Structure formats: C-alpha cells, structure tokens
Known about the structure:
Blueprint: H1 2-10, H2 19-31, E1 42-43, H3 50-60, H4 70-75, H5 96-107, H6 117-127, E2 132-142, E3 153-161, E4 165-166, E5 171-182, E6 188-199, H7 232-239, E7 244-248, E8 254-255, E9 270-274, E10 278-287, E11 299-306, E12 311-315, E13 329-336, E14 342-348
Antiparallel strand pairs: 1-3, 2-6, 3-5, 4-5, 5-6, 7-8, 7-9, 10-11, 10-13, 11-12, 13-14
Helix pairs in contact: 1-2
The structure holds zinc ion.
Amino acid sequence: MTTTDATEATGATEAPEGADSAKAALFGALKTYEGKPAGPTFTMADPVNQPMIRHWVEAMGDENPVYADADAARAEGFGGVIAPATMLQAWVMRGYRASAEADAARAAGEAPVGEWAQDRVFVLLDEAGFTSVVATNCDQEYRRPVVLGDRLTAASVLESVSPEKATALGDGHFVTTRTDFTDEAGEPVATMRFRILRFRPKAAPAAPAAPADVAAPPRMPRPRPSITEDNSFFFEGLKQGRLLIQRCASCGVLRHPPRPACAECHSLEWDTVESSGRGTVFSFVVVHHPQIPSFDYPLPIAVVELEEGTRLVGDLVGVDPGAVSIGMAVQAELVAVDDELTLAMFRPAVPPGAGTRGGA
Ligand code: ZN
C-alpha cells in the first residue's frame, strides 16, 4: 500500500476532505520520494563503440568527421573519436528486454511496480487521476565528451515533483528525473534531466450545441508555440500579416522551421523573404483523436510546399477533410486565433478563372 506508507511518512494522517487538503496530502506524499533512486542503476553492456555511432550518425544524416575519423577528431582538439552528444541516453537504454520483463511480470500476476521512487510516484499520481503523460523537456550537461571505449553507468534519482499546476493539457504535476552518467573510474561524465507532465485528462468536449444566439463558453486557448530567439521573427511576422521565411544570407537557401545555421553551407547569417503564401499540399493527415478542446475535429493538417521552395505545416481550413488531396493548390491565410497568437493556415486556392486574379 504505497499510498498509506507515503501519507504516514508526511504526517498527514487525517483523511482529507476538502479539495485543498487532498491536494496538499498528495503533494506531501509525492515530495517524500524526492532524492530517492528513480530506478535501477545500469551499466552499459558494451562500451561506446564505432558501429553504434556509425548507425546513429547515418540515421541522423550527421557527417561531422569527429564521430568517425580519429585524425579529424584530434584536429578539432579531441583525444580521438567522440560520440554525438545526443546519443547519451541511447547508451544506457535497455530496450525491448526491459519491456518484455515487465510484460512477463504482469502475466505472472506480479505487480509490475517495483520499489523505485518513480514507480511509487506514478502509482500515487494514477490513483489521484493524473493518468496521462507527456514528456516536456530533456536537458543534458557534459563534463567531457563521451569517447570510444567508455563504459558508462547511469544512476537515476527522482529529482523533483512540482505542486499541482494548471496547464493547457489539464491540471498536473511535473516530475523531473536526473540521471548521472559516470565512467569506469566513477568520474562524472554527464547529467541528464528528463521532465514529464503527468496530468488529469480533460473531459471530452461536449457535442456542439445547436446554433443559437446564446454565447458559447470561452474556448480553451490553443497551445502556445515555443517562441525562441531563432523563431520569434516568424510569429512576429504573422502578427503583422506577413508570412516570412528564413533565408541563408550566404547561399540563399530557404529553411523552415527557423534555426540558427544553414544546413547547406553552415552559415549563421540569415535574412527573410516574404512568401506569397501560394503552395500545394505536399502531404497531410486528418486528425480524429486524441481531441484537444482548442481544435475542431476532424482536423486536416497539411505539409504545404510553398512556391518559393520550402515547406510549412499548417491547419487546412475551408475544406471538407475528405476532399483534401496531395497536390491540391492552397493559399495561406493568417488567422489571429486569439489576441496573442496569429498562425498560418491554408485554404484551397481559388480555381483559375473563378476569382479576380484568375489568368493574371
Ligand atoms: Zn547557406
């Protein structure tokens, strides 16, 4: 009975009656697991090796020679071939076997939940109705590069659980797990913090009411895009009614979504071009589930190839979801979805001849 144990540990022995005291009791119980091992400590079965690195960089399309050529790596100041920083977690992932073991335990009638802090916290959150999960962010810090021959050990600690927070997805708790990677000498190599949100799923939206002059309840706002130094020009442009596409100032190649460097020539210099918004549907999906209350379903979303030569993802509006097709001509429409946010959506283009611009 993990709930009882944890509740007693906090000294909250009374059965809470009000919502606030229930929240406080749960939060107190969750906090008791902070700083405790999140799961088993795991040491890599095989040392860091060239074949795994090669598969990774080929899959990623990363041709930096420091991952494959010792001379090139030394020329960059490393002692030899290094592993890509983003492989950190891959070295200690247990993969299919861990899932198979959990499945076998479940089939044998054993509780799949162990003694680890992460398991206990998840049980508490499940019992309190926070049954949905989304990964929110992952931060890594390195003390030195991971190199060929390293045999890393990963030890995870449940670092923190947030108080209950209201989010666009629903009310929930952020759970942060810290994994410390050490080498065979026990020296620290890197630290990874992985944060998830466990939230209480919102009730499905009510069926649309018959059209009436009764004001509809205020709609849940759309999720906010993550606006950064790199992409703020794009969203500012939309607010001003301009669809701006990032262009490499050195070689002229367009790129979207915005990012700091040109993939073609590696230049950090860039400017923008204003797109006409004309394009064609390169690919699309029609989303039915899961339904988020800020959207209407079925929801067609397209990858649009702009006539300037780059692609953009956007909602399709003014179209029967069943009638969307690849190659369909579309026109961008900048829609102020609320006071703060304008997004580029796409509407089927007026067929030639049907509009005033036809034949222009
Ligand atoms: Zn370039």
